[in-house]
Amino acid sequence: MNPTPLPTQRVLLGVTGGIAAYKAAELVRLLVKSGREVTVVMTAAAREFVGPATFQALSGHPVYSDLWDTRPDNGMAHIELTRHHDAMLIAPASADFLARLVHGRSDDLLTTTVLARTIPLLVAPAMNLQMWQNPATQRNVATLRADGVHVIGPGCGEQACGETGDGRMLEAHEILAALDAWAQPKTLRGKRVLITAGPTQEAIDPVRVITNHSSGKMGYALAQACAEAGADVVLVSGPTHLPTPFAAAAHGEPGSLRRVDVLSAAQMLAAVEAEVDESDIFIAVAAVADYRPVTCAEQKIKKADAGLDIHLEPTVDILARIARHQRRGAGKSGPPLCVGFAAESENVEQYGAEKRARKGIPLLIANHAQSTFGADDNQVTLIDERGAAGATRLPKMGKLALARALVAEIAGRI
Ligand code: CTP
Question: Looking at 157, 183, 209, which one is the last position of a domain?
Fold first, then answer.
């Protein structure tokens, strides 16, 4: 099972009149950089803020503004434009433009194109916080949502007018992420997914720990991909420097993401056990310490010429324990669907198959330890009950793209 995301290859970008129009220039740049084709339609008000030459240069295509534009062969820009694009995105969408959409106005090229479109519409509102909070705007946004328009943002923060609050257009990279998230198939809608990510830290004394090189990137990418697929995700994270993954749920999509921070393997186990009864899927990506110091010194250990012996004891294997766990959540019994990761430095298929059987889990994702820690790309091999002989090697790809492919695989198994 490999559901295809909604196409967003050719984006028709509408720019309306607001100071955030300057951010639309960066948005065009990022859309083009992501390999997409972009055509820009500007309202007359938008042209007061940014010149069409900017958008033409960044998109590499002519910019449209005039309903009576004669460039399309049939002279009907509003029809031609939507028929040759996959999705229409309005960013920024001003309060006035949202109101005009609600009433189905068609008195300029952009509103007429919206009415004539056959493709999905996404809007990224941008306005002063009072304008956003005004009941009229909130009514308009609710109506647009009910009409099937996907609303991205707005964000909260300092505004061009000097006030602070809701109404800011999201940053270009956030809009791009929201567009990507929106396009993902909702294969995990209604499912709860529990994910561990990152390293653990096992304390030796108040200032020293035993840890490992795990960056958390793969686990965070999977958390994001699961939320994009509509799941409610709990991300139990060891210490990382990563921001919490972008949750499309904040923008009217199904799916949500909650992060629980832990340090040690014992804390990770406790956090997982607190969530597992309600979870449908458990994905163990964390590089959990296999051993921890038997005791943690109360005070900092002083340097001694004789050297230092640290006595270690094994930690609990969280994945193996959850694979045997009998859930007591509403409508749930037996263990959740358990997926493990294995960082192997040699004989990836064979060691991975043995590890899968030892841990008692249906699916193990094995990767090369040398290539994965801290990297943005990853190459993995999927190992299930068919063992090493039936292992499937996926091509090397970015961790988010890989996470989305793994979500499709996992969704097909639940
Ligand atoms: N894991 C876990 N709890 C542990 C150790 C590992 O949940 N205490 C999980 C990891 O999150 C991963 C899988 O088990 O999904 C494999 O971990 P790995 O360390 O590669 O395997 P080990 O069983 O520890 O075997 P070894 O280190 O000998 O390769």
Answer: 183
Shortest-distance Cα residue to atom 4 of ligand 1:
317
Question: Is pLDDT of 250 > 70?
Answer: no
Asked if residue 121 and residue 21 are part of one domain, the reply reads: yes
Band of the pLDDT at 367, cuts 50, 70, 90? confident
In this predicted model, what pLDDT tens digit does every residue of 295-329 receive, in sequence order? 999 999 999 888 999 999 999 999 999 999 999 98
353 and 398 fall within a common domain: yes
CA distances from 155 to 4, 46, 135, 167 (A): 29, 20, 18, 6
296 is catalytic: no
Rounded to an integer, the average pLDDT of 5-12 is 94
Q: Which residues line ligand 1 (CB under 6 A)?
A: 196, 265, 284-286, 288, 290, 315, 317-319, 340-343, 355
pTM for the whole structure:
0.90
Pocket test of ligand 1: the residue of 317, 364, 368 to mutate, having most ligand atoms within 8 Å of its CB, is 317
* Cα–Cα nearest to 379, from 411, 344, 412: 344
What separation in angstroms does the CA of 402 have from each of 343, 398, 399? 16, 6, 5
What range defines the domain where residue 289 resides?
A: 192-411
Does residue 173 share a domain with residue 216?
no
